[in-house]
Amino acid sequence: MTENPPRASRVDPFGELFATATRGTLMGNRGGRLHVSPRVLGTRRWTSRQWICCVLDFHDRQRTVWGDSYTELFFLDEPTAFAVGHRPCFECRHADAVAFAQAFGNGTRARAEAMDRVLHAQRLDGRGKRLHRLPVKSLPDGAAIASDGAVLMLKGNRLLRWSPSGYADAGSRPDCGDVDVLTPPAILDVLRRGYRPLWHPSAG
User: Fold this and answer.
1) Distance, CA of 48 to CA of 141 (rounded, Å)
2) pTM passes above 0.85
3) For the CA atoms of the chain, what is the radius of gyration?
4) Where are the beta strands (DSSP E) in 45-187?
């Protein structure tokens, strides 16, 4: 019996959907249904501004992936989801979502609708990914940089090269110059204010 190929349900830091046999550590969605059949995506890449990031398992709930409800999307880890502009889910990741909202509002808990409105403007340029040209010295851990088609994550004094299966060391973090940043500025502020994202184990 021939196994079905993987769905195009993984999300890269540019926000593109692709198929891979490797598993992500977090799930999410973009407000509704993007697929037109159990294994085929339609042309839409979001249905609302509510882009969230969830745990893989919650209260032992069983779901049919790409069934009659929203389209399940999967991320390597939270810095990947942040690069795309997803925020933590208030239902399955309540404590993380509250911490994120507090940092987003700089001490005053931001409402989900307000965060979604800001993030939607910062993550998209038309239908494509918006890049933000910023000084590398200003960036917090967890920021994602686009560099010659690759994605580099900042963690400590190192650069980590992103791949669907994990991270590889890419050398020392630069201390000067401007770079193209994938992570929306509002999420960069959240990271600067102390929110600690969930990294893939390969990040060390």
Assistant:
1) 28
2) yes
3) 17
4) 52-54, 73-75, 87-88, 124-125, 128-129, 132-135, 144-147, 150-155, 158-163, 166-172, 178-181
